[in-house]
Amino acid sequence: MTAFQVQDTVAVVTGGSSGIGLATVELLLEHGAAVAFCGRNVERLRGAEARLRASHPQARLLAAPCDVLDPAQVQAFARQVQDAFGAADMLVNNAGQGRVSTFADTTDEAWSQELHLKFFSVIHPTRAFLPQLAQQARQTGDAAIVCVNSLLAAQPEPHMVATSAARAGLKNLVRSLATEFAPQHVRVNGILVGLIESGQWRRRFEAREDQTQDWAAWTGALAARKSIPLARLGLPREAAQAIAFLASPLSSYTTGSHIDVSGGLSRYA
């Protein structure tokens, strides 16, 4: 399949061993890209790699342990990718969960941790892979960075004050990078996700009060409480499809923008 026009390209996905990141890795492999992905949890990383190799035995795949908050590790990962596949055509920045806290109970340390995670999980990989992306853009005319962000960037929640603020900052960073990198023909875009099925939601489901309620009923009730017009949680693959579009030549005239993947939950203009 070549619907996303990524066949024979090189893609890099951070935080690729679960959730949206893993779904993105699999989708890009299905469409013929060579994919390198990383994660901090080595056991989960190797488990994901084994499953992907079993389902895509001919795939060009690299799985590397890497903490994106450690610039030396990210630079080493970039060299691994270059050695294995050549220069990257696309980078998907996908790392970090949300922090549940209000202003009253968010400590200075928690603020620092959250802001550092949300910004430097993008800054370090972008800095490490930009030379490769620019190199490819000089040859092909197009390279892309896609940042996975949250609807909180535009629609903050008071019980997630630190994450909401950090996500808004990331949304602005995407716009700034898009302008700065445009002369190099490196596009920068993002997605804003709402409630997507994940391990975090699965853990909450396991701890539900009514143990007779199945997953479909529980998530349906959750969607109703959150007033999601499509009446369900999103699937990681649905977010991955938006990422693949923005990373591919199909969006070659799109930069500095975001695709809303929230099932209609967004209320912002």
Q: Concise description?
A:
With 269 residues, this protein is an alpha/beta fold.
SSE layout and pairing:
Elements lengths: L9 E4 L5 H12 L3 E6 L2 H14 L5 E5 L5 H15 L4 E4 L14 H33 L2 E8 L10 H21 L4 E8 L5 H8 L8 H11 L10 H12 L10 E4 L8
Parallel strand pairs: 1-2, 1-4, 2-3, 4-5, 5-6, 6-7
List keywords for this structure.
single chain; 269 residues; alpha/beta; Rossmann fold; 2 domains; seven-stranded parallel beta sheet; 7 strands
Please explain how this structure is put together:
By secondary structure, the protein is of the alpha/beta class. A seven-stranded parallel beta sheet has the order 3-2-1-4-5-6-7, with helices on both faces. Strand 1 (10-13), helix 1 (19-30) and strand 2 (34-39) form a beta-alpha-beta unit. The protein is globular and about 55 Å long. The mean pLDDT is 95. The chain has helices at 19-30, 42-55, 71-85, 108-140, 161-181, 199-206, 215-225, 236-247; strands at 10-13, 34-39, 61-65, 90-93, 143-150, 186-193, 258-261. It contains eight helices and seven strands; from the N terminus they run βαβαβαβαβαβαααβ. It folds into two domains: 10-196 and 235-260, NAD(P)-binding Rossmann-like Domain (Rossmann fold); 198-233, no CATH class. Helix content is 47%, strand content 14%. Helix 3 runs parallel beside helix 4.
